[in-house]
Every structure is written in structure tokens, then in C-alpha cells.
Amino acid sequence: MNQTLKKEIDTLVQLQQIETEILRLRQEVDKVEKEKTALAAQLAQFESALDADRQTLDQVRQQCTDLEGEIQVVNDRIIKSNETLRMVKTNKEYQVLLREVDDNKKRKNSIEDHVLGLYEQRETAEVKLKETEAQYVQIKEQIGAQQAKIDEQTMDDREQLAELEARQQSIGETLEPALLTRFRRIAKMNLGQAVAK
To answer: Around Cβ 185, how many Cβ atoms within 10 Å?
Structure first.
């Protein structure tokens, strides 16, 4: 066998081995990246649940504030009606104002009952939010540790991949361009396998 042909075959075999190892390492790195993406998605999902709890608490707080303001308005009406009662001269006006005061007191009691229910909701939402925030911090630390571990584990693979790609490039430069092109085309058609055993 021609010495040049044997050398080219040896080079192609060596290139095939590098190609196979590069393919394996890329699959490994891709798998790890998918794990990291899944962890990040899990964290994002938990963040959105935390945001939903915050929004719920904010809404309950706003409702409490609005109703407390409404109670103050009704209180002012009661005070004003009571002051007006002292100045009334007819029995009919007096009865109308008494009914108005009574209606305002009923309205105030109704709003206060509703506010008490909202206070309970607010307390429940605050407790739930604190628990969710604590869980979020814990999960964030766990996921951060898992991602750091994954990065650490793949660092060697990434370095090895970079070295192999550099070797692949240098070996490819020693081959004739037509032979290298044929090798790449065959490898692409056969899932990375261009040289038979």
C-alpha cells in the first residue's frame, strides 16, 4: 500500500475518533444545559407563584384601605346628620334624619363586618406569602447549588471539547481539502460516522 495513502487513512481514522468524541461531548453538554434550563424554569414557575401571592395580598390590602375610607365617609355623614338633628324644627324632618342616621349606621356596620373578613384574609395572605418567600429562598439556593454543580461537572467536558475541536482543526489542515470535504459529507450523512472499522 502506498505510504501516502496509509498516512491519509491513519489521519482519517484519527479524525474519526476525534469526531466521535466531540459528538459524545456535545451531547453530554447539551443534556446538562437542558437540565439547567429545566431548573431555571422551575425557579421561574415558583417566582410567578410568589408574585401571584404578592398581588393577592396587595389587592386585599387595597380593599381594606378603600373600605376604611368608606367607613370614614359614613362616619362623617352620621356626625353631620346628628348635628343637623339638633337644628331640626319639624317632626317630619326629624324622622327623615333619624332614618338617615340609622341607615348610615347599618351601612357602617355592614362595611366593618366586611373589613373584619378582609383583615382575616389579609392575615392569611401575609402568612402564606411569608411561607412562600421562605420556600422561594430555599429553592433558589438549592437550584443555584445544583446549577453550580452542573457547571463544575461540565467544565472538564467543555475544556476537553475545546481541545478536541482544536485538534480536529489542525488534523483537518493536514488533509487535502477535497478529501476533508468528502469526509465531512459522509460523516454528516451517517450521523458522524465517516470511516468504517
So the answer is: 11
DSSP of 21-54, one letter per residue?
HHHHHHHHHHHHHHHHHHHHHHHHHHHHHHHHHH
CA distance 8 to 60: 77
If you average pLDDT over every residue of the chain, what do you get?
Answer: 85
Predicted TM-score (pTM) of the model is 0.64
Q: How many domains does the chain have?
A: 1
CATH number at residue 154: 1.10.287.1490
Contacts of 168 (CB under 8 A, 6+ apart): 15, 18, 19, 22
Assess if residue 195 is contained within a domain.
Answer: no
* Backbone torsions φ then ψ of 185, nearest 5 degrees: -65, -45
Residue bearing cell 443555584: 144
Per-residue pLDDT band at 196 (split at 50, 70, 90): low
Q: What secondary structure letter does DSSP report for 88?
A: -
* 26 Cβ contact list (under 8 Å, min separation 6): 161
